Each structure stands twice: as structure tokens, then as C-alpha cells.
Amino acid sequence: MRTNIEINDDLMDQAMKSGAFKTKKDAVEAGLRLLARQAAYREILALRGKLRWEDAPRAAELILNEPATGHPVRLNEALSAKPGMP
Predict the structure, then answer these.
(1) DSSP state of 85
(2) Cα separation, 37 vs 33, whole angstroms
(3) Cα 83 to Cα 52, 57, 86, distances in angstroms
(4) Which residues, including other chains, have CB under 8 Å from residue 43's CB and lie 6 or more apart?
(5) Can you give the residue ranges of every domain in the chain?
(6) H or E segment at 28?
(7) Radius of gyration for the chain, computed over Cα atoms and rounded to the nearest angstrom
(8) Which label site among 7, 16, 56, 83 has the fewest CB atoms less than 10 Å from its CB?
(9) Whole-number Å distance between alpha carbons of 73 and 85
(10) Could you tell me which Pfam families the record lists for this protein (predicted)?
(11) What is the pTM for the complete model shown?
């Protein structure tokens, strides 16, 4: 999706250097992935004491292997799906 936004030049330079990104798009996408991953981690923390131990590897797999869609994973929904289904 094409989106035009104004980004602080100093912040973009800092991000590009810190991640050794080749393009601004790569830096922005990495930042968006980080935000989505942090939201998933918060969701995992909210499940503390509610997740069965045997579901833990699947939850970790869902977090570490981002879906191709780029959308954050909803762990409650994903864990209740049939095994082998994303």
C-alpha cells in the first residue's frame, strides 16, 4: 500500500544507522514489525496462567514467525485453530 507521510529526518537517519537498513522503506517496515511484535508479547503476558503448557511452543512459533500478511497474530484465535493452521 502506498502511503505518503512526513517523518522526522533525524529520527529516520538514526533508525537507518541503527539497523543498517538500505532503504527508508526497510526501516519503516522494521519499526512496524517491532510494534506488532510488542503487541503480541503483551497479549502473551495477558495470558499468564491461562495458557496450557503444551500450547506454549505454538504461541512462540506464532510470535517468531510473522504471518505473511503482516497483520499481528491474535494468539487466542490462533491457538484455538486446528494444528497446522495459521
Answers:
(1) -
(2) 6
(3) 15, 12, 8
(4) 74, 75, 76
(5) 9-80
(6) helix 24-46
(7) 16
(8) 83
(9) 13
(10) VapB_antitoxin (PF09957)
(11) 0.57
